[in-house]
Write a structure and sequence with these properties.
The complex is a heterodimer of chains A (101) and B (700). Chain A has helices spanning 8-27, 33-46, 53-66, 71-83, 90-99. Chain A has 101 residues and is mostly helical. In chain A, helix 3 (53-66) runs antiparallel to helix 4. Chain B is mainly alpha-helical and 700 residues long. In chain B, a hairpin with a 2-residue loop joins strand 1 and strand 2 (90-93). In chain B, helix 15 (294-315) packs antiparallel against helix 16 (321-343). The two termini of chain B are 57 Å apart. Classes of the chains: A mainly alpha (101), B mainly alpha (700). At the A-B interface, helix 1, helix 2, helix 3 and helix 4 of A face helix 2, helix 3 and helix 4 of B.
């Protein structure tokens, strides 16, 4: 995946996904409230610093290692990466991410 | 991108799958209140609340209740007058820190580290208690959730050991509970664990205090970097610089170049201007020129000129004016060289050899060879010189006034830090005091509610005298030892009365209770003359006075009085009476200034300290009242007896300290106050704290 910076809109959407995943996980008892609190801390300390897709992927890998509940966010982005490894398709990835909302 | 790649089936994004991926563990640690919070956030998300705000809100809740490892590190880094910093998972102190700064930092770090161990360890311990799970499961789940700070059983046991040793090392704890002095090793650790760690209120009090200390530490005045730092840097840099320079000169001499003192000095000054290793070597070469005679320098210069003219002549067109001019010049140079070489003295010849050798090695294309011969000195001397110049420049810009101001700021800061270290030192003890104080008030409220019900019942069924007696005992329970002055809104500790009554119970046992109750029922007994006859007033009526325990004998009571006394003694009021005396004795024996927010003492200054055999006597006389009596926490049902019967608290905690009568008595007293053993009942809505966790530890 290229080094194009992620847009602020994409960052906002990913924040929404992460929040929804966390809330649903706590409700489903697959993540403790405390786990949600700790992962929130982890996310907020790092996510705003990420500039590119590779950085986002690396971050999600770290996040998933600690809290497996976030895995599907990572898996989804990885799938998109495989599909759209052409540099020109980054906009399309963003569009698809937005489509999720 | 090919079509084949472009048109795979789009992955279905499922939040549910996302939530369930990778774990099938059902967690039970989320409270109802937390679930409600999550539900309301979900609703707000549907209404458009941003995900980031949701995440921030969840995190904010955590920070209210927690004092995290990161908080501990941040707090540690506040000490040492700004010379400490966080590096990875630890704090370090700058090498330039003074002894005072180092001392402040180390003292704070020792306390914070101990408290941090307690908080992290008790967090796991209490989770075991809440969920009823064993330590293994709790640790495994935490690791899965990403908290790897306690990765396995050994790490947990190490943390437990650190925490309990820290708490056990507090001398104030021994002052608070002198019984601890009789305990060592595992016994002491288990006592601390059962009495303090198992109490969530204790942990909450510790967190609250750490938060307060954190706020105070945040407001410490920052100390600017200034010239005394520069002085230190200058000194260090200068030393390094001189060392590098000496080694350079030393190695030049090994080169075969003998340098005079003056030349060494010149080199020292000259290298000060160099910016790169090449520059430096050039400076050395220039300086070397000054160290040899002008004839030698001129000869070597002519050699270089000859080479240049030869090159010019070769490059020019044959027969051209350029070639002719170059050859003429070459002829002149060679003639001069011949003439000068003939005129050289023997000394100049030696000097010339050395100079040639040095120049050969100092030529830029020989730099590699030179730096091999003079390993790192050239680069090192540049770096240290630059460091030195920077520090000197900074020092020049700093005024003496600023220095003095800064020194004062450091002094003020270290004093402020010292105050915070003192607070850190007493965090654990103050937390315990707070818990005891709160529990005491809670017990008293429950006791008064119980009394009201008893009196209401008595009003329906008992005669007037019995009602009055019950009321009298209640008044005694509420006012005898620690009273509450409603006008002054202070608790009044009657030290003398407590000492007296505890002594009576110690030595008279159950009869001692009768003696005290006889007094508090206001039973009047006839006074006797010295000859043993009944004393009478001028009207011939017997003189009576209120029964005095320890002086008067129960046989002095009339049958009617004895019947009233026995009735009370057989009722639950006797147990409530004894327990309240022990509670008040226990509380009054501590630092009541901290324990009870507003108190005054009257009649006597110090609470009696019983000796070991006296504790044993109390234990013997009142074991039943203490161990099986009502805790008062949630009335009749929550007794230690029932907890034991239900297998909730571990086999027999009291047996743990059977060899320590004072400790056994103490544990019973703590239980009366709802601390430790029964804390879970008060705080956890029926969840038992000590039992599950202790059982979990046993599984280790």
């Amino acid at each position: 995946m290229d080094q194009k910076p992620i847009s602020e809109e994409t960052r906002r959407i990913l924040y929404n996904h992460l929040a929804d995943t966390m809330l649903e996980s706590i409700e489903n008892n697959t993540m403790s409230y405390e786990g949600g609190q700790e992962s929130s801390d982890y996310i907020l300390q790092r996510f705003d610093e990420l500039k590119t897709y590779p950085e986002v992927l690396q971050f999600l890998e770290g996040l998933t290692k600690k809290w497996p509940a976030y895995s599907s966010v990572l898996l989804y982005l990885k799938n998109l990466e495989q599909e759209h490894n052409d540099e020109k398709q980054v906009d399309k990835i963003e569009a698809e991410i937005k489509h999720l909302t | 991108m090919s079509d084949a790649v472009a048109t795979p089936e789009k992955p279905q994004f499922s939040m549910k799958e996302a939530a369930q991926f990778g774990t099938e563990i059902k967690l039970a640690t989320t409270t109802d209140e937390e679930y409600e919070h999550v539900k309301s956030l979900r609703a707000e998300r549907k209404d458009g609340k941003e995900g980031k705000s949701v995440i921030e809100e969840i995190r904010a809740r955590r920070r209210e209740k927690q004092f995290t490892r990161h908080d501990s590190l941040s707090l540690e880094a506040k000490f040492g007058a700004g010379s400490a910093s966080i590096e990875g998972d630890k704090t370090t102190l700058a090498a330039s820190a003074t002894v005072e700064e180092q001392k402040s930092f180390e003292l704070a770090r020792k306390e914070i580290s101990g408290i941090d161990s307690y908080l992290r360890y008790s967090d796991i311990f209490l989770e075991c208690s809440r969920t009823g799970e064993n330590i293994h499961d709790v640790i495994a789940r935490r690791v899965r959730n990403g908290d790897t700070s306690v990765a396995n059983r050994d790490a947990y046991l190490d943390l437990r050991n650190e925490a309990l040793n820290y708490l056990g090392s507090k001398e104030e704890f021994e002052e608070l509970f002198p019984e601890l002095k009789d305990m060592y090793g595992i016994t002491k650790q288990e006592f601390i664990e059962d009495a303090f760690v198992s109490d969530p209120l204790f942990r909450a009090a510790v967190v609250e205090q750490m938060k307060r200390i954190q706020t105070r530490a945040d407001s410490l005045q920052p100390v600017e970097k200034a010239s005394d730092d520069h002085d230190r840097i200058i000194d260090e840099s200068h030393e390094k610089y001189e060392d590098s320079k000496d080694k350079l000169i030393e190695n030049l001499e090994k080169f075969g170049i003998t340098l005079s003192g003056e030349t060494k000095e010149e080199i020292g000054v000259a290298v000060y201007k160099a910016n790169t290793p090449e520059d430096l070597l050039q400076v050395v070469a220039q300086s070397l020129q000054k160290s040899v005679s002008p004839e030698v320098v001129r000869l070597e210069s002519l050699k270089q000129s000859i080479k240049e003219e030869e090159a010019k002549a070769n490059a020019a067109t044959k027969g051209s004016n350029t070639e002719i001019a170059a050859k003429d010049q070459l002829k002149n140079y060679k003639a001069e060289v011949e003439k000068m070489q003939a005129a050289l003295t023997d000394e100049q010849k030696v000097e010339r050899e050395q100079y040639q050798k040095a120049l050969q090695n100092l030529l830029p294309d020989k730099l590699d060879a030179l730096t091999t011969y003079l390993p790192d000195y050239a680069a090192q001397i540049i770096a240290t010189r630059q460091e030195l110049q920077k520090a000197e420049k900074a020092k020049v810009s700093a005024s003496p006034e600023a220095d003095a101001k800064r020194a004062q700021a450091i002094d003020t800061r270290l004093k402020a830090e010292s105050g915070i270290v003192t607070e850190l030192d007493s965090v654990a003890v103050d937390a315990m005091m707070k818990v005891l104080g709160e529990r005491y008030d809670e017990m008293q409220t429950l006791e008064e509610a119980r009394q009201a019900r008893v009196e209401e019942e008595a009003a329906k069924t008992a005669d007037e005298q019995s009602q009055a007696d019950v009321k009298a005992v209640h008044n005694a329970i509420n006012e005898n030892w620690i009273d509450y002055d409603k006008d002054e809104r202070k608790r009044v500790v009657n030290t003398e009365r407590i000492n007296h009554d505890v002594t009576i119970l110690t030595y008279f046992g159950e009869d001692g209770v009768r003696l005290l109750l006889a007094r508090d029922l206001g039973l009047q007994i006839p006074q006797k003359e010295k000859d043993g006859s009944i004393a009478k007033n001028s009207k011939g009526e017997p003189i009576t006075a209120v029964f005095v325990p320890g002086t008067d004998d129960l046989s002095a009571l009339s049958p009617e009085q004895r019947a009233r006394l026995d009735k009370i003694f057989e009722s639950q009021e006797k147990t409530a009476y004894v327990q309240k005396l022990f509670k008040d004795y226990f509380i009054a024996g501590k630092d009541t200034g901290k324990l009870l927010k507003a108190i005054k003492r009257e009649k006597g200054s110090g609470i009696i300290k019983l000796k070991t055999h006296e504790y044993a006597l109390l234990e013997k006389h009142f074991a039943t009242d203490l161990r099986e009596g009502k805790t008062g926490v949630s009335e009749d049902k929550n007794t230690i007896k029932e907890l034991k019967k239900a297998g909730i608290i571990k086999g027999n905690l009291l047996d743990l300290v059977k060899d320590h009568p004072r400790a056994s008595f103490l544990i019973a007293l703590l239980a009366l106050l709802g601390v430790g053993l029964t804390a879970g009942i008060a705080a956890g809505g029926g969840t038992i704290i000590a039992g599950a966790a202790s059982a979990a530890i046993k599984q280790l």
